[in-house]
């Protein structure tokens, strides 16, 4: 009788330990699944667009016209604004999609495609008159579905 009670206690301990192991494993699996679903639903998804400076001269004549070539890549869509924004004050760093062109240090832009209706992907060629000599900083910009897409900053010299 004594052995039977001991065996019964050992079986209960083993069962409790085993059920605790299953509880821990179940909890761990639950946490991993929750994290995976959270990541999937919280990380923004959607089309990826890129604005790329294709060609810009390193040097342009003062009182002359600077020509810029840029491209917008991504899924087909119609947009109303794209431009090369430029000025004599650098605005370094990476711009996020919340950064509008009004929030930058750039004081001028290529006006050719600043307001219209354009089907992208597309390559653009625009001109701007450069009034003053000196170093200029520029970025390509496009407003797509309420988000601002920016190229890295480039520069040119007006002489």
Core attributes:
alpha+beta, Immunoglobulin-like, six-stranded mixed β-sheet, three-stranded antiparallel β-sheet, 41% strand, elongated
Précis, in short:
The chain is an alpha+beta fold and 159 residues long. Helix content is 26%, strand content 41%. The chain is elongated.
Q: State the total count of DSSP E strands.
A: 9
Instruction: List segments where confidence is low: pLDDT < 50 over at least 5 consecutive residues.
Output: none
H-E order: HEEEEEEEEE
Helix content: 25-40%
Largest beta-sheet characterization? 6 strands, mixed
CATH architecture label name of the largest domain: Sandwich
Q: Any idea what the CATH superfamily of the largest domain is called? A: Immunoglobulins
Assign an overall shape.
Answer: elongated
Cα separation of the termini: 106 Å
Radius of gyration: 30 Å
**With helices defined by DSSP (H or I, 4 residues minimum), what is the helix count?**
1
Our count of domains comes out at: 2
Give the amount of beta strand, in percent: 35-45%
Could you tell me the CATH topology label of the largest domain: Immunoglobulin-like
Describe this structure in words.
The chain is of the alpha+beta class and 159 residues long. The chain folds into two domains: 1-45; 50-158, Immunoglobulins (Immunoglobulin-like, Sandwich), CATH 2.60.40. It is 26% helix and 41% strand. It is built from one helix and nine strands; from the N terminus they run αβββββββββ. It has one helix at 2-42; strands at 50-56, 59-60, 65-79, 81-87, 108-109, 118-129, 134-144, 147-150, 154-158. The strands form two sheets. Strands 2, 4, 5, 7, 8 and 9 form a six-stranded mixed beta sheet that branches. Strands 1-3-6 form a three-stranded antiparallel beta sheet, with no helix packed on it. A hairpin with a 2-residue loop joins β7 and β8 (147-150).
């Amino acid at each position: 009788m004594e052995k039977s009670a001991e065996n019964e206690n050992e079986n209960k301990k083993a069962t409790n330990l085993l059920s605790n192991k299953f509880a821990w494993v179940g909890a761990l699996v639950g946490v991993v699944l929750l994290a995976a679903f959270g990541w999937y639903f919280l990380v923004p998804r959607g089309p990826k667009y890129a604005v790329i400076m294709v060609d810009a001269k390193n040097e342009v004549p003062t009182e002359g016209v600077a020509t810029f070539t840029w491209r917008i890549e991504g899924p087909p869509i119609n947009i109303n604004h794209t431009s090369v924004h430029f000025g004599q004050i650098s605005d370094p760093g990476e711009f996020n999609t919340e950064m509008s062109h009004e929030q930058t240090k750039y004081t001028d832009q290529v006006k050719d495609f600043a307001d219209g209706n354009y089907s992208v992907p597309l390559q653009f060629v625009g001109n701007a008159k450069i009034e003053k000599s000196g170093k200029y900083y520029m970025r390509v910009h496009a407003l797509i579905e309420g988000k601002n897409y920016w190229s890295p900053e480039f520069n040119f010299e007006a002489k």
